[in-house]
Amino acid sequence: MVNERRELHKTNYPPQSLGYQIFPPVLEGRIRPIQVFEQPASLLIRPTARQKRELSGLGINTLSDLMGLPFTEFRQQVNQWGLLTYNLSKYFREDLAIGPEGHLLRAIFVDTPQIPIPLELEGAREIAVAAALATLRENEREILGLHFGLTSSIRLTIEQTAGEIGIGRVQARNIETLAFRKLRHPSNSAVLSLFAPLPPNSLGKTFLGSDFGVEINKQIHPRSLENLRVRDLNFAQWGDISYLPLSLLIRWDKERFSEPVSQEIKQLLAS
């Protein structure tokens, strides 16, 4: 069932299990669809052929099976267990924690770091992404939903996505490219950029020490500065506009977006 979801906690697993031992703190409290845990474990941790046989011998097929396995048993029976646990932990940190909306935003705003958004902002990000996707055509939404896991939190390759829809890979890629262009338009990017990780050399990261534009939105003093938009603050490189003193950056007014922002999202950002 696509709508069945589960809240992630370390205590979901027995104290001596693999899941309990390597559960990353960044996952605590996040909610993900049940289908995520029903994925084949071999697709997530990339074991060797020998390790696949060993996992099969232990009765390990899905991610849930692997998480519930006693840690000592896993350590004793699976060769190179350290590499497998590293791959699993990496999947937690760089895939499950970031979430499908996060992966989509990283594709829209290229060259952004791969870091998870704070837990308390996930709901606002989901609403912002849904509002932007509503401006696309149905086939564009379908392709992005399958490719980035928005449909079930299980990401498909562009080839798999094309196969699911019944079109060619090139056509699917072209439709996706057009969808990206629409999502990068100022009418969408003004809000979406708030929830994309800031590049290391961005203004917001360099001077305000924030990882996400929405965090900047909450800490700056509300005074207006004409024509300084949030995406400029988030993604402009300081070397490109070095004539702007820092005093100007902290005068940006969150109520003076140059593009329209829904009242619902404004309230979420202000909370």
Give descriptors for this structure.
271 residues; mainly alpha; Arc Repressor Mutant, subunit A; two-stranded antiparallel ribbon; 17 helices; 2 strands; 2% strand
Write structural notes for this entry.
This protein is mainly alpha-helical and 271 residues long. The protein has 3 domains: 5-96, no CATH class; 99-188, Winged helix-like DNA-binding domain superfamily/Winged helix DNA-binding domain (Arc Repressor Mutant, subunit A, Orthogonal Bundle), CATH 1.10.10; 195-270, no CATH class. The protein is 52% helix and 2% strand. The protein contains 17 helices and 2 strands. It has helices at 18-22, 41-45, 49-57, 63-68, 71-77, 81-96, 99-108, 122-133, 138-147, 158-165, 169-183, 186-192, 203-208, 213-219, 230-235, 246-249, 263-270, and strands spanning 5-7, 31-33. A two-stranded antiparallel sheet has the order 1-2. Helix 9 packs across helix 10 and helix 9 (138-147) crosses helix 11. The protein starts with a strand and ends with a helix.
Helix content: 40-55%
Helices and strands, in order, run as EHEHHHHHHHHHHHHHHHH
Give the overall pLDDT as a whole number: 78
Anisotropy-based shape? globular
How many structural domains?
3
Residue stretches low in confidence (pLDDT < 50, at least 5 long) are 221-230, 236-262
What's the total helix number?
Answer: 17
How many strands?
2
Instruction: Tell me the fraction of residues in β-strands, as a range.
Output: under 5%
Question: Major β-sheet, in short?
Answer: 2 strands, antiparallel
Structural class call reads mainly alpha
Spatially, the strands of the biggest sheet line up as 1-2
Span between termini: 32 Å
Rg from alpha-carbon coordinates: 21 Å
